Amino acid sequence: MRRLTPCALIAAANLGSAAAQGDPSRAEVIEGLALATRYFAEQVATEGGYVYYYSEDLTRRWGEGEATPTQVWVQPPGTPAVGEAMLAAWLATGDPEHKAAALAAAAALRHGQLESGGWTNSIEFDPAAAHAGRYRGGRGNPEGRNYSTLDDDITPAALRFLIKLDRALEFEHGPVHEAAMCALDALLGAQLANGGFPQVWDGGDLLEVDPRRRASAPDYDWRTEHRVKAYWDLPTLNDGIAGTVSSTLIEAHRTYRDDGRFLEALRRFGGFLLRARLPEPQPAWAQQYTSEMRPAWARKFEPPAIATRESEDVLEALIAIAAATGDERFRAPVARSLEYLRGRVLPDGRLPRYIEIGTDRPLYMERRGDVYTLTHDDSRLPGHYAWKVNPNLDDIAERLAGEAGRPKPPSDREVERILAALDAQGRWVSVVEGRGPLVGQPKFQPGDRYLSSAVFIDRVTTLCEWLAEGGSAP
């Protein structure tokens, strides 16, 4: 890895000092972006890819758990999310360093693209390592896992970054274009006959489903019957799949307009979302469904139930699908489902993650060892899961009414603070406040200093948005 030159270090120190003295200039923002990208690309990256967190001295790295020295993460805020921030910086500034960093992130993703066409949560560059997958082109471990996943925005995030980069490169970078099209082919190939998607696929046979069947409540004891071990083959909405898949298909349609497959897949997915809504008096959505379109178990703490977080995600997706297709039938159920969810808000202003089918009672779990028991009592909730969530119902209602305002552009003061926090090496160093794990499970102690990919993404994106708005200083 190249070290920052003395001139670059002096420039970074002067930049922070200048930002602290007054309004930022465009030149200062552009220089700040260059320093930040240079440090991340040259000092932090592994083969062009990224994990979630780094110790300040870069000797330890974490994704969802501690990463090996040769491992990077796909799941945001990993490689594709960092690459997309670098792509935004290139488009905002024209600086070829940002372009090179974005291309390096794309190369990392291309290395870890599975034979099944998508991605799993991490990429291992050592083919002998335990986590190495069965990557395309004979890379990786020929006996490794080959499960492409939509879970946690893994394959969709990688795809959206490659699609945007392909468009920015005017479709002239052959490897980037080929990787994007391969993944899109795989995504369309994984779409079930009813328009839904499974959580994972390996290129083999898909679950057989009736393309016309609508969702219905179980007519059996769902607490004990019909638990499916391979729940990842079922049509699913868990972990934001409605939003991430629809936004990916919309991005593909916007970019490759001559290829009508993506709009058609989007319409089919929208049709599945309409049919997946449970009937009155509970017009909302479950996390996943059986082949007969009944709410299904996933993990042992994820029961068949109305899932409020997934229902909100579906409502946002339906509004977006209606806008992209011009078909207003996708918006038709939104108002009634919003009304239903508003009626389920708890006294503390939150929504229960699960609502029991048939009773509308909040549904929770108690845990003793590895055994989970269903309960309506919220006094002993396991701490590893979000059993109650903050609602997003007002924002969805505004979007439905067409009243969602344009996001407020970053202020000069915000940009000034970001530049002032950039240290002499081109880093934004975070400090742990309080106790407990951060997202991805690394255990930090109060006062620990670390680097965060999420912080890098947020601050680079903010600086790019400020440049796009023209800034206020000459």
How would you describe this structure to a colleague?
The protein is an alpha+beta fold and 474 residues long. Helices cover 40% and strands 9% of the residues. The strands form 5 sheets. Strands 3-2-1-15-14 form a 5-stranded antiparallel beta sheet. The chain has a 4-stranded antiparallel beta sheet with strand order 8-10-11-12. Strands 4-5 form a two-stranded antiparallel ribbon. The longest helix has 19 residues, at 26-44. The model is unreliable at 6-11 (pLDDT under 50).
Can I get a quick summary?
With 474 residues, this protein is α+β, with helices and mostly antiparallel strands.
Set out the fold topology:
Layout: H1 6-21, H2 26-44, E1 53-55, E2 61-63, E3 65-66, E4 71-73, H3 79-93, H4 96-111, E5 122-124, E6 148-149, H5 154-168, H6 174-189, E7 200-201, H7 241-255, H8 261-276, E8 306-307, H9 308-325, H10 334-342, E9 351-352, E10 354-355, E11 362-368, E12 371-375, E13 388-389, H11 393-400, H12 412-421, E14 429-431, E15 449-452, H13 453-468
Helix pairs in contact: 1-2, 1-12, 2-4, 2-13, 3-4, 3-5, 3-13, 4-5, 5-6, 5-7, 7-8, 7-9, 8-9, 9-10, 9-11, 10-11
Name the descriptors:
13 helices; alpha+beta; four-stranded antiparallel sheet; globular; five-stranded antiparallel sheet; 15 strands; 474 residues
For the terminal residues, how far apart are their CA atoms? 35 Å
Major β-sheet annotation? 5 strands, antiparallel
Oligomeric state of the chains in view: single chain
Shape: globular
How large is the radius of gyration?
Answer: 23 Å
Count every beta strand, where a strand is a DSSP E run of 2 or more residues: 15
The percent range for helix content is 25-40%
Instruction: Show unreliable segments.
Output: 6-11
Q: Strand order of the main beta sheet, please?
A: 3-2-1-15-14
Output the helix-strand order: HHEEEEHHEEHHEHHEHHEEEEEHHEEH
Structural class: alpha+beta
Helices, by number, come to 13
Overall residue-averaged pLDDT value: 93
Strand proportion: 5-15%
